[in-house]
Amino acid sequence: MAYGTPTTPADIEAYYTRIRHGRPPTPELLAELTGRYLEIGGTSPLAARTAAQVAALAAALERRVPGGFDVRFGSKYEPPLIEDVAPGFAADGVDTVIGLVLAPHSSSMSTDQYMSRARASLGEAVRFVEIGAWWDAPGFLAIIAQRVNDALASIDAQRRDSTEVIFSAHSLPQKILESGDTYPEQLRASAEGAAALAGLSHFDVAWQSAGRTADPWIGPDILEVLRTKRAQGWTDVVSCPIGFVSDHLEVLFDIDIQAQEVAHEIGLHLVRTTSLNDDPAFVEVLADLVGSRA
């Protein structure tokens, strides 16, 4: 399961309306979001990237257990929707379904919602096995650490001592913390694990892509953090959006355009780690994860 993205610019309004729980966006909000998609080429590559991940995972599982897995994709906000895909399992006689969200950290307002929608749509005849937070899945943080070191290698060796690595994930409303949601702790723990494997002596965490609502969202925002780092004397930053597993709007616009604009404005050199997408090593991590729950 994954978030989903509009397929064409004409689909943006309907997509935005679903995200807003049936409330159409104002013309101003629609224009702003449409403008962001136009900045990255008109549409996000997320649909294609997710399709490639799903196909690669299906192939990896088929190699391990021929005929043993039936991999299907359901999206939260764009067809094929979770509610439309899930009932097909029961109709086809499947008695056990393993749920995997393509996001390494879990939260009551993110991955838990995918799971509840899938569970309700599957019906009582199907046993549903939920894979929760998987940032600590064997091999995952090692892949992240390698990408961090690859990005660091692109920075002049004489400036490494003034280079900071910032791990980030999608912000969520602060109200999730009232129920003891561990989402922030998961980001910190995954950053610490990746930093240790990468041999980093200093790093930080930040949040990004907060929604446009009246409620406060978890911070500090990465744009604020960049300004703080520059004021503290850092010359270079490696951005590692560890909470995202593929190229899409929150990476290609929020980091590659918006954060780069701030970095340029304040005289900070910013490089980003490459996205996981359907990297074979990452797919094998997911296959191990699914196989461990079968």
Summarize it.
The chain is α/β, with parallel strands linked by helices and 294 residues long. The protein has 12 helices and 6 strands. Strand 3, helix 8 and strand 4 form a beta-alpha-beta unit.
- How far the N terminus sits from the C terminus, by CA atoms, comes to 17 Å
Low-confidence stretches: none
The helix content is 40-55%
The radius of gyration is: 19 Å
Average pLDDT for all residues: 96
SSE-based structural type: alpha/beta
CATH first level of the domain at 140-272: Alpha Beta
Enumerate how many helices there are, as a single number. 12
CATH architecture of the domain at 140-272: 3-Layer(aba) Sandwich
H-E string: HHHHHEHEHEHEHEHHEH
- The fraction of residues assigned to DSSP E strands is 5-15%
Shape designation = globular
**Main sheet, how many strands, which sense, barrel?**
4 strands, parallel
Strand order of the largest sheet: 4-3-5-6
Can you tell me about this structure?
- This protein has a domain at 140-272: 3-Layer(aba) Sandwich (Rossmann fold).
- It contains twelve helices and six strands.
- Helix 8 (183-198) links the parallel strand 3 (163-170) and strand 4.
- Helix 7 (140-153) crosses helix 8 (183-198).
- The longest helix is centred in the N-terminal third of the chain and has 19 residues, at 46-64.
- Helices cover 45% and strands 11% of the residues.
